[in-house]
Amino acid sequence: GEILNIVMAQLLQSLLLAGLIMLMFSRTVTVHIQHIARHLGQLTPDTMGKSLRLERSPALQDELTLLEGGVNQLQDKLVHHLARQQQYENELGEHRDHLADMVQVRTAELEHLTLAQQLVLRLSNRLIHAPHEIFDACQRECLVEVAQRLGAQLALWLVPSVDHSGFRRYAEWRADQDGVDASPVLPQDGLTQVPARLAREELLFFLSLAEMQRSLGPHEADLFLSQAVGANALALLRGEDEDYGILFIGKPLGQGDWPPEDRALLSMTVQMLLHSVRHNMQLKQITQTQDALRLANRQLEVLSRHDVLTGLFNRRHFDEIKLDEYQRALRSGQPLSLLICDIDYFKAYNDHYGHARGDQCLQVVAQAMQSAIIRGGDVLARIGGEEFVVLLPATTATAAWAVAERVRLGVLGLQLPHAKSNVGPWVTISIGLAQLQPQLHADFLSFRAQLRL
Asked: Does 385 lie in the same domain as 323?
């Protein structure tokens, strides 16, 4: 029993000591561990800057102190990391927004440029297919459309005068009034800066009238202005060996910018107008060449069917007409007569008076014969040296003899001296007549008339 009491007493002492140790451990370690656990469990990005503070004496330096410092150091690094991450995210967002703005601006520019290209393409197509007679009017209409697309208030096109002593207004358009200004020619010496500058730069853009006046001088700037403008531009219409003048575009007062799409449209317009003028000049030259060629062809056709000396129809034309009239006479049953006329002793006339007088004789004889042929359908032709033929559709032999007598008397009435003639002192003609017979060929008609000379 005594041993048992001793054992029980020792056991109670051990239990009390263990409880005391556990109580002391709980107060010095467990409570702080739980505090640390709660602190870590409550951490968020917003509370990351709140430091861990254990409720214990600052003089204590042990593992808990190291743990407390490590937690706070880790929190500081996390705070710095989160701050940098937020900075990167903000910068990335700003770059994204800036890129989106740039894409939007560029997209708008491309849309405007596409519209400008479509406009120029449509106007170019109109100018290409414009008839030459209304080309100038179409060109002015295209200039007006471009000016309106640019939001301009004034558009002016100056072209060199005919003698290149100055510039004249080819077209002038204003938002409140359009038409061509009939004002006097601007003297060449009045424009010195503008042509020189444009020869170097081709396009000049000014953000205001004042800037234009400072750059070109008030005198030259005012030559382009019929009213006050804001932003304005000058363009040169000139090829390698071509000068089609100067283009001026003025925007309304208060508009002082030239965005890229407007600059591109004006540049394309200059090329469009330049090429259209060149195209029209080429078409004009082609048209003139075609007209000259048609005239030459008509003249050649006339020459190919007419005798050069007398102006009468030649044998080629007579042969064609003879066959046509022969077929017509056969179909209709109408009579057809033929006269063969020959100048008497013409070779002797040539030998005596010379070939020049002989040619003159042929000419006046032809005129006299032509005067005796009064019907429009009758055909007089020279078919040989001194041989002539008269084709008389719808004419009987009796009526043909009357025509032959008029022709003979007409030539005799000229009273051309013929010293070598065996039939009289004057130039005379012999005439043979034949009338169509259905069983005869057209060529035989000429043969029969020849036999009856």
From this structure: yes
3-class secondary structure, 282: helix
CA 284, CA 372: separation in Å to the nearest integer? 46
35 CB-contact burial (10 Å; exposed 0-12 / middle 13-18 / buried 19+): middle
Stretch (H or E) spanning 404: helix 397-412
- Print the domain residue range for 365: 315-451
The residue among 249, 271, 302 that closes a domain is 302
CATH of the domain at 254: 3.30.450.40
Q: How is residue 390 written in tokens?
A: 């008269």
Residue 65 bridge partners (DSSP): none
Report the predicted TM-score, pTM, of the whole model to 2 decimal places. 0.55
pLDDT, one tens digit per residue, over 112-154 is: 888 889 999 999 999 988 888 898 889 989 999 999 999 998 8
Is the Cβ–Cβ distance between 23 and 1 less than 8 Å?
Answer: no
The amino acid that residue 240 corresponds to is: E
Instruction: Check if the beta carbon of residue 261 is closer than 8 Å to that of residue 165.
Output: no
Beta strands in 290-443 (DSSP E): 336-343, 379-382, 387-393, 429-435
